[in-house]
Structure formats: structure tokens, C-alpha cells
Design a protein that fits this description.
Blueprint (H helix, E strand, L loop, with lengths): L2 E9 L15 E2 L2 E2 H12 E8 L11 E3 L8 H11 L4 E6 L7 H9 L7 E6 L2 E2 L3 E5 L3 H9 L14 E4 L1 H7 L12 H12 L4 H15 L1
Parallel strand pairs: 1-4, 1-6, 4-5, 7-10
Antiparallel strand pairs: 2-3, 6-9, 7-8, 7-9
Helix pairs in contact: 2-4
Length: about 220
């Protein structure tokens, strides 16, 4: 069942540690990272937005392609644009370099949204995970204020009373190996992701993608 929520993929990074083509276009198994995310998001959300710096590189995607409204060229500006263009009151936001996003985790985070919540976010052993979280469009003025004041860290606009954390104990039940927070920043990360895919990580997502391709060809 699709969620009453927008899916937002942030793809405006500088790619400095993984030279060559944009890291989201690197293939892991039979799909690029972006294809993996798009397939999952098309299943989960009624609307998906990808926020980029170079729109020409993303021509042909079956989703809205947006650029920053406030040209700060940072993740916070991408989050702002994603929320600004979202048609739904809440958006699940992820980075474009996360190949093993978890349907179970995403559904749980969206389901946990309650009255007064501006952010629903996983808390892992490494702390809060701001690029695997649900945000309310009510965050827009707070983000704009921080961008205006050159405060670019995402967590700086959080207001504790409006933040709902999902603890590690719950996350591990949903994704025992915590693969949903693994991201690809370096050539070593890319090789590790390919090995994870080879060993069967998220095979169900591959099956969904393959079935859709076969249906489209029929």
C-alpha cells in the first residue's frame, strides 16, 4: 500500500571521494543505486522528488526533478527544496548513495508520525540519522532561518519537543543488519556494497525490479 507521504532523494552532492560519474549512477548488482531507490520509492510513495544540482544528468526519470531554491549548495538546502515541492504534509528523505534502503524501516517511521511531530528519525549507535528520516513541511521556516544565518547542519534546526526518535532496539527488529544506513562514499564502500548485493542483501527489491522490467517488455 502506498503511503500518504512524499519520498525525497537528495542527489546534489559533490562526489569528491568517488571520482568519475555521479555515485548514484554506479551499479550494484543489476541496478544502479538510483534505480534501487526509485524502484522502492515508486512502491512506497504516491510522489517522489529528486533534488539535484545538475538536472540534465537526470533527464528521463519518472519523477519530479528539482533544484535548490536557496542556492546554498548543501544538504540542508536540498532538504528545504524537497519539502517545499512536496505535495504531502510529510516527506521521507534519504541520500542518493544509500543502496539498501529498508521498506520495513521506512513504513515504520511514517507510521510513527503523530500530532506535533516535525521529525521522526532513527537513533543508531552512531547517533541520529537525518538522511533516513521523516520531515514535516512545518520545518520549512526553521530551515530557511538557518540557511539565512549560514547554519548548515541539519540537526541544528530540530526542536526537541517536535522530534520523535525510533530506538535501536526497534530498528534492529526491522533491519537486523542495519543495512539501511550503509552509504557509498568511496571506492571501498562501492566494492563492499557490490559484495553485499552479491551475497543476497535485499533480494526482494531485485525481484520487484526484475518483475517490473519483464512486465514492461511484455
Amino acid at each position: 500500500m502506498e503511503l500518504d507521504c512524499t519520498g525525497v532523494i537528495l542527489a546534489g552532492g559533490k562526489n569528491s571521494r568517488l571520482p568519475g560519474k555521479k555515485k548514484t549512477f554506479h551499479r550494484i548488482g543489476e541496478m544502479s543505486i538510483l534505480e534501487r531507490l526509485c524502484m522502492l520509492f515508486s512502491k512506497l510513495f504516491k510522489e517522489t522528488i529528486i533534488v539535484v544540482n545538475e538536472p540534465k544528468a537526470f533527464i528521463g526519470l519518472d519523477m519530479m526533478v528539482a533544484t535548490d531554491i536557496i542556492p546554498a549548495r548543501c544538504v540542508l538546502a536540498g532538504l528545504h527544496a524537497g519539502l517545499f515541492y512536496a505535495s504531502y504534509p510529510y516527506a521521507y528523505v534519504t541520500a542518493c548513495d544509500i543502496p539498501f534502503a529498508s521498506e520495513a524501516v521506512i513504513r515504520h517511521l511514517v507510521d510513527r508520525v503523530g500530532p506535533g511531530d516535525h521529525v521522526v528519525i532513527p537513533r543508531t549507535d552512531d547517533g541520529l540519522e537525518p538522511l533516513s528520516a521523516v520531515y514535516s513541511r512545518k520545518c520549512i521556516p526553521l530551515i530557511e532561518e538557518n540557511l539565512k544565518n549560514n547554519v548548515f547542519m541539519i540537526k541544528k534546526f530540530y526542536q526537541k519537543k517536535h522530534v520523535r526518535e525510533v530506538p535501536m532496539s526497534v530498528l534492529r527488529r526491522l533491519d537486523p543488519d542495519m543495512e539501511f544506513i550503509f552509504n557509498v562514499n568511496t571506492p571501498a564502500d562501492l566494492e563492499k556494497a557490490r559484495q553485499m548485493a552479491l551475497n543476497g542483501v535485499r533480494p526482494c527489491l531485485f525481484d520487484v525490479f526484475t518483475q517490473k522490467r519483464q512486465k514492461d517488455k511484455a
